C-alpha cells in the first residue's frame, strides 16, 4: 500500500525499532529519507518564513563576551525582509507545520508509518547558514531529524530530566552541559537521526543547511481530563445530585469519609461501560485535534472539475496537516477528523475514510460510486488533498 519505504536501516524491522529504540535510544538511518533530497532549497524556506500565515521563529546567536548578557535573540512571526538584514554570522530560522504548505512533503510521514498518525505532531524546518544552531537542548517528544539540504553535525549527550537546568534569562531552552558525548556525526541530505525524548542534542550547520524535524506528540493527562469534562456535559444523568450516606458529624466539617464516598461514585462511573464510552470519546477528540489553524483553501474545484481530475488520474490522499483517524469498537467504526467525530457517514464512505487515514491513495475507481458532493466536502474540510498528475 505504501509507495514510500519505511525509514529504517535495511536490516531492521519496524517491530525491532519500536521495541529497542523508540523512546529509548537514538538511531542514525543513513539515507533513510532520500525523497527529501532536492525537494527544497534554502530560498524556498526563507520565502515561506516571511509568509503572513506561517508560524516561524528567527533565532539570532549574537557573539558576546559580557557575563550574564543574553546570547540568543528570538523573533516570532510575522517575519519580514528587514528581519533578515544585517544578521550576525550565526542564526536559524524555524518554520512549523510544513505539511500545510506542502502536502507532498507531508506524505513523507508515510516513511514513519510505524508511528501512528495520532502521535505525529508536525514537520518543522530549520534553515541555518554555516555555524547556525538552536543550541544544546532536549525535547520532551520523539523526533526524526531529517537532513534535506547541506550538512549538519549532530552531537548527542546525556538523558535529561526535570532537574536539568536551562540557562537563565534566555528566550529559548538551552543548556551548556550535555554530559558525555555519545554520538558525533555529520548528516548529509537524505540521512535521518532518530532522537528519543529527553536526550540532549546539538546540531550545527556545516554549510547552508535545511533540517526537517518530523516531531511526535502524545497527549498529557490534563488534556484528557479537560476533554472528559466536555464529553460529560452531554450526559444529563451526571447532573443529578448524588445520593450520599450521612452520619452525624460536626456541622462545619467536610469529612474525609464524604470525599471518599464521592470519589467511589466517580470511579464507579468511570469504570462502567458509560465511563469507558466517555473516555474513548475524550481520548479520540484530544488526539485527533490539529495543533495549528487550518488554512482557508485558495481555490475550490467544482464537483465536475474534481471528478474529471480523478478520472484523468489524480488521486485523493489524506492531508497530514489535518488529523483523520478511526476507531473500532463494539458499536462499529467511528471516524474522527480534527477533534470531532463524524456522524451520519454511510458504510462506503467509512471504508474509504479508513483507507485514507491509513495512507492509501484513492483513485477514480475507488470513489466513483460516492456522492461527489461528499468528496468535495472532504477536500474543503482539508481532510484530503488532490494529488493531480502533472
Ligand atoms: C534544528 O533543526 O536545528 C533543531 C531541531 C531540534 O533540535 O529538534
Ligand atoms: Co530538539
List the helices and strands and how they pair.
Elements: H1 14-20, E1 27-29, H2 42-49, E2 56-61, E3 72-76, E4 91-95, H3 103-106, E5 120-128, E6 143-149, E7 152-159, E8 183-187, E9 192-195, E10 199-205, E11 209-216, H4 221-232, H5 256-271, H6 273-287, H7 303-311, E12 315-318, E13 324-329, E14 332-337, E15 340-342, H8 347-357, H9 364-367, H10 372-380, E16 384-387
Antiparallel strand pairs: 1-9, 2-3, 2-4, 4-5, 5-11, 6-9, 6-11, 7-8, 7-10, 12-16, 13-14, 14-15
Helix pairs in contact: 4-6, 5-6, 7-10
Succinic acid is lined by residues 92, 126, 134, 139, 143, 145, 201, 203, 211, 213.
Show unreliable segments: none
N/C terminus separation: 22 Å
Output the strand order for the largest sheet: 1-9-6-11-5-4-2-3
- Strand coverage percent: 15-25%
Structural class: alpha+beta
How would you describe this protein?
The protein has 390 residues and is of the alpha+beta class. The chain is built from ten helices and 16 strands. It has helices at 14-20, 42-49, 103-106, 221-232, 256-271, 273-287, 303-311, 347-357, 364-367, 372-380; strands at residues 27-29, 56-61, 72-76, 91-95, 120-128, 143-149, 152-159, 183-187, 192-195, 199-205, 209-216, 315-318, 324-329, 332-337, 340-342, 384-387. Helix 4 (221-232) crosses helix 6, helix 5 (256-271) crosses helix 6 and helix 7 (303-311) packs across helix 10 (372-380). The longest helix has 16 residues, at 256-271. 31% of the residues are buried. Bound molecules: succinic acid and cobalt (II) ion.
